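user: Please supply your own:

assistant:
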Amino acid sequence: MSIDTVVVSKDKLDMLMPLIVEQQYDCGKEVDLVTTRTFFEGIVGHEASFQIMAAEEGVAVGFVMVDPIPNLQFADKVAYVHDVYVTEPLRGVRGVGALLVVAAFAEAMRRGYEFAEGETEPDNRPARKLYDRMAKELGIGCKEVDSVRYLVDLRPGIERARREPEYLDRLAAPRLLSRQSARPGADS
């Protein structure tokens, strides 16, 4: 089975909504379906903000949100990568989180972002390792700004994409999953 990523559009929102509800419940939030749906209808499809969904056989299994934030120290706008969420049965076994982060970085570069920021809880070691590993694998700069916030320099990836037009498409392809699922004990 293959997991694909897609930038969420309004026609994909029905597929994503059950996973959004799951994520909200996991965070201990009460979910008002009408308000939640209205919120996502308002943000899906915008040029600056975007959401990436991972899907397997037509079912959403993960998503990540990306919003522009001002950061005049580094760039006019920075892609803020947040709310990486993977459904419980797939966490840590198939590389879905890594796939989502890579797809978010690739889409941010396509949209002209030169920097991205990611943030996680100080005790979330898997997420912290993920940002470091992804930066190394993608050949982009990543430094810990404080104990939970990362600044990712996307400019080397943008330069490479100018030299190799297919580079961003290759990044967003689920190549990481084959290596991850080959680990002993990983689901197929």
About this structure: The helical segments are 13-26, 33-43, 96-110, 125-138, 155-163, 167-172, 175-181. Residues 176-188 have pLDDT under 50 and may be disordered. The longest strand covers residues 59-71. Residues 96-110 form the longest helix (15 residues).
